[in-house]
Design a protein that fits this description.
11% strand; 281 residues; Rossmann fold; homodimer
Chain lengths: 281, 281
């Protein structure tokens, strides 16, 4: 079903960004429909797990490489769905998932990257950020939770931080889950109508929706200013859940394939160890 | 395929323990073989995920309940396999996995439970300990890494700690993955013979195997002295990987079922929120 590389198709080009011109319901790189995507996604699982285990094995021996998947998007864009359906395909052993919430008093008493640093993936791990340091130039900007000059400072600080992560072996995959305002409305209504989903809804979600345009503007600036070669943004059309999940699974797979992973050679003499084991009881 | 409750069948009875009399290759509660178990395990997934999401939803609203699965066992007993095949069935969102390694200098400068406390599951989470505070009465005892009186003190400290966790809403499920010395030898040899598994082997594994009897004695004491009603031990016959995985999946499921979980009722007026959403753009 796959044609061109999703990595190329969804890569945000350098330069000015206009979210209103980016299709939120497209299916770039996928020729089938919902049924095919739902069948094909779990089929990525074995190769994802195999590559992830090789990365873990590399980290277990002497490697330093790691992967960081960053998930950002408006409420209902599907971060939780990606965790269940895509991140759920990974082996829990080699995974480090961090869901960033509203910062604590202690976290606020430090620079915004302090709490982020503590949860970057270790060697061999695939890290997943459900929300991230980008909240510090999104919700913080929209609600003016920090002075404008401080928000302004953060774009450069983020680029420096991500550059350092990349230089020390981290493959960074930043995904913006793009939906329309109309899609959000449909999904919030669907939550209200479904007793198994009502718990996910908060009245504050409707208040936040009142700031839709301000959030889109803040995303636009973050996407434009933090779209570097070492930490590029991918814009994931997320109006169709099945495409969103498939695309992020595929994107992660393509990045893992790009690492040319292999099983590490043993740093001991296999025959000698075999003999030791055979000798004893 | 299931007959009696695995929870009852595998529960370690109170009183003296003799590991040599416990079958490590039995399949209590499962009437089929390898093929059936491998088919049945993933079929537990949807119910596990459903109950886990209900627990998460409860924690997201005002609940305090949580679950802690503790995995202990000799090298090659299959802790990693349980993570891949059983824990991998859970939704990453509501899961907190901690793999305890050799303690750091900082950790050693505190009481042994200091680092454990930091990784107990939060409300709504299923926590998984891959190794745990039991290492502090196992490897520590075998290699005399702490004075005998300190090790002796720890059994009571563990019981107090686990009682506190239980009192504050934690369902504790402690699994001892029981294998024979012969099985360990076979599995270590299999690692040496498989280039995709050689990275898991360390020459030190053979040295540790030299302390097999001391480890079994230390496990015996830990199983006897920390087998309480609020935090019972389950002895999982782990000589057959397929049974071990199925049994732990089933045990977790039975414990989640026992919590009588349900979707939390909304703490807002659904019709009112619907009207707010419909009114706006």
């Amino acid at each position: 079903m796959t044609s061109a590389s999703v990595r190329e198709l969804l890569r945000l080009p350098a330069g000015p960004v206009d979210l209103s011109t980016l299709d939120s319901r497209g299916t770039p790189g996928f020729d089938g429909g919902k049924k095919e995507a739902k069948e094909e996604l779990p089929e990525l699982g074995p190769e994802l797990a195999d590559l992830q285990e090789k990365l873990f094995a590399e980290g277990y021996t002497d490697g330093t490489r790691r992967v960081l998947l960053v998930l950002q998007g408006m409420d209902t864009s599907g971060k939780g769905g990606v965790l269940s359906h895509v991140v759920g395909l990974l082996d829990p052993s080699g995974m480090h998932l961090k869901s960033f919430k509203k910062p604590t008093e202690e976290e606020l008493a430090h620079d915004f990257l302090w709490r982020i640093e503590r949860d970057v993936p270790a060697a061999g791990q695939v890290g997943i950020f459900d929300r991230s340091h980008y909240e510090d130039v999104l919700v913080v900007k929209v609600h003016q939770l920090a002075p404008a000059a401080e928000v302004e400072r953060r774009y450069g600080a983020i680029n420096d931080f991500e550059k350092r992560l990349a230089e020390t072996g981290t493959t960074i995959v930043k995904c913006f889950l793009h939906i329309s305002k109309e899609t959000q409305k449909e999904r919030l209504l669907a939550r209200l109508d479904d007793p198994t989903k009502q718990w996910k809804f908060k009245p504050g979600d409707v208040d936040e929706r009142g700031f839709w345009d301000e959030y889109q503007a803040a995303y636009t600036t973050a996407l434009e200013r933090c779209n570097t070669d070492v930490a590029p943004w991918y814009v994931i059309p997320s109006g169709r859940k099945w495409y969103r999940n498939w695309a992020i699974g595929q994107l992660l797979l393509e990045h893992l394939r790009g690492l040319d992973l292999d099983w590490p050679a043993p740093d001991y003499d296999v025959a000698e160890q075999r003999a030791r084991l055979e000798k004893e009881q």
